[in-house]
Amino acid sequence: MSQGLSTKHLLGIKYITLDDINLIFDTAREFKEVINRPIKKVPSLRDITIANLFFENSTRTRISFELAEKRLSADIVNFSASSSSVSKGETLLDTVNNILSMKVDMVVMRHPAPGAHFFLANHIDANIINAGDGTHEHPTQALLDAYSMQEKLGNLTGKKIAIIGDIFHSRVALSNIFCLKELGAEVTVCGPPTLIPKYITELGVKVEYNLHKALQWCDVANILRIQLERQDIKYIPSLREYALYYGVNKALLDSLDKEIIIMHPGPINRGVELSSDAADSHHSIILDQVENGVAVRMAVLYLLAGKRN
Ligand code: NCD
Fold first, then answer.
1. Which of 16, 52, 138, 270 is disulfide-compatible with 132, CB 3.0–4.6 A?
2. Strands 106-111 and 127-133, bridge-based pairing
3. Are the beta carbons of 176 and 168 closer than 8 angstroms?
4. Class of domain 13-137+290-305 as given by CATH
């Protein structure tokens, strides 16, 4: 295989190269084969200790990382804190000191403060992996999303991807945009004007406010949740109204004159951004995303471990 990654940390898609992305995908493909064998475990990270630090709620990302680490035979320690119980500054300083004394090799962290991972990376020697930092980035989600799209569509150059929903508060949206643009896809974001960031077109994406038009245009619709927990003011009149104008349902999909792929990073608010009949339809590859998440995270952990000196 090639030289390895260009970086020791995964802080965001913005900070890795196209070669890095392709290397992660090639490695993930091999790990996907491994996790579908009767014996799913490999000894690749046997001497590596990983701390999973979750300062924000998570179900699938935490489980996915944990499973990836176990499949690679790493030793792991888990820490979760509710974001409301700890103050930002103290938490990160405490974290640094704890990690230093535990002799941890790699840190997977989810934190409500955008950029928290840069602080850690500047203070400790461990490889840092961003599992979501506030409204900023969620790089492994974007990698598994793009990997899942490639699995269905092949090369993404020129493919049309619509990202639909709360673009303003979504770290998945930003990481998806960086990753998909790097891979040569065309990206359109769609949602109510209040949930589309003002200067988003500077990232090379188009904006479409009409859901039907966005769906009619795209090959893939990546549908995102309204991040109510990050909204300090009212951006939409009501969830009911949002569902009426921006909810994707089976009737809408059937009204298109082509087949499109439906994705969602989870957790789904069924009946709001996505109806059950669409989420569970043949259009959906949501469960493939979950399966690919483990393989992609194994690849990231394995490749970053290779950058330890
Ligand atoms: C996403 C997240 O946490 O940013 N979920 C996830 O990682 N599976 C998206 C979301 O919470 O809506």
1. 138
2. parallel
3. no
4. alpha beta
**Cα 202 to ligand 1 centroid, rounded to whole Å:** 24
Name residues whose C-beta falls within 8 Å of residue 214's C-beta, 6 or more positions apart in sequence: 162, 164, 188, 190, 208, 221
Rg (CA), the chain: 19
Q: For the chain, which residues make up each domain, given as ranges?
A: 13-137+290-305, 139-286
Q: Find out whether 25 and 38 touch, Cβ atoms under 8 Å.
A: no
φ, ψ (nearest 5 deg) of residue 172: -65, -40
Q: Which CATH superfamily is domain 139-286 in?
A: Aspartate/ornithine carbamoyltransferase (3.40.50.1370)
- Does 61 contact ligand 1 (Cβ within 6 A)? yes
Contacting residues for 153 by C-beta, under 8 A, at least 6 apart: 159, 219, 220, 261
pTM for the whole thing? 0.95
Residues 88-144: pLDDT tens digits?
A: 556 677 777 777 788 899 999 999 999 999 999 998 889 999 999 999 999 999 999
Tell me if 4 CB under 6 Å of ligand 1.
Answer: no
Q: Are 216 and 256 in contact (CB under 8 A)?
A: yes
